[in-house]
Amino acid sequence: MNPFIKIRRDLHLIPELGFQEYKTQAYLLSYIENLSKERISIKKWKTGLFVKVHGLHPRKTIGYRADIDGLPIVEETGLEFSSTHEEQMHACGHDFHMSIALGVLTHFVENPIEDNILFIFQPAEEGPGGAEPMLKSEIMQEWKPDIIFALHIAPEYPVGTIALKEGLLFANTSELFIDLKGKGGHAAYPHLTNDMVIAACSLVGQLQTIISRNVNPLDSAVITIGKITSGTVQNIIAEKARLEGTIRTLSDQSMDRVKKRIDAVVKGIETSFECEAVIDYGAMYHQVYNNEEITREFIQYMRSQTTIEVIECQEAMTGEDFGYMLKEIPGLMFWLGVDSPYGLHHAKLNPKEDAIEVAINILTSYMTYKGN
Ligand SMILES: CC(=O)N[C@@H](CCC[C@H](N)C(=O)O)C(=O)O
Description:
Elements: H1 3-12, H2 22-33, E1 40-45, E2 48-53, E3 61-67, H3 94-110, E4 116-122, H4 131-136, H5 138-143, E5 147-154, E6 161-164, E7 167-170, E8 172-181, E9 185-186, H6 196-213, E10 221-230, E11 236-237, E12 240-249, H7 252-273, E13 276-280, E14 284-285, E15 288-290, H8 292-303, E16 309-312, H9 322-328, E17 331-337, H10 354-371
Parallel strand pairs: 3-4, 3-5, 5-17, 6-16
Antiparallel strand pairs: 1-2, 2-4, 6-17, 7-15, 8-12, 8-13, 8-14, 9-11, 10-12
The ligand CC(=O)N[C@@H](CCC[C@H](N)C(=O)O)C(=O)O binds near residues 175, 285 and 344.
């Protein structure tokens, strides 16, 4: 078995949520510390890591970022190396991202190029976001790369393909949390209460009208409520409800507009259901915007290789806090085909592991070309 498949499986066993990636960090560290120390410097940052592979005669630093956190999902793949952590799973491919980064790192420790390469193992991509604080950290300011790359697995594309485009690749995101407080009471006396289950249901429906009636049909936006909590038992009217969701837009202006409409709709709920509502927009991610020139050159390079097929794709409504890094450092992100019938954030996501070697090969070849 390819050693990086074994590493992916080890990491798949121990998914951890954002800023709790202690075992993951320890695993990464123990692997990296076993490599030849001559060329590497390591600095811990919270539950993440910066690893610099020193070049032979560096003129610049190439950055490569891998995210390391898992999701709160009960795994249903039935794999023998399924998650051992209750209600946590690598369901967004970050186990792949890490093992690929370790494969590329190992290659350059053994086969140094002229330039430095900075590997960034970043916590909390799924939330609340590790990229922005990591970017602002003293370590990053000292070791700041001149150009930066990252990939994300793509279940919808076959192994042996990558997909990307110049410019906008992933949407702007904002988390959304709404707490409603009314008046609970006996299930048989609804007229004496303000039922927050009814208010929450009505609110979910009204939020969707923002997408269908306030966003230009030629633009794109998404509001998803992924979680509702309310009530205690079947015969008590709920005093409180909490909605948890996310907003996606293709521009900052649309994000402002959608939030203004959410504020207005929630005010309407307060009036009509005689309740109190508190909105918290949580963490926001900057859109992922691929540098045009670097992307053109990257596509041209990849098309000159016989081992990979390049698909020029459309933008997606996914979010990625790597967008913050691309806002400050020129570079790109691409999708890596991993061919799984179940998509990202699904309990049965099972990416094809052959893609790990494909990714290590194309990245080492491209970075060697860029950094020599
Ligand atoms: C690639 C991917 O799936 N990223 C996540 C990022 C989540 C950001 C934040 N927690 C939010 O939900 O807005 C995604 O859901 O797109």
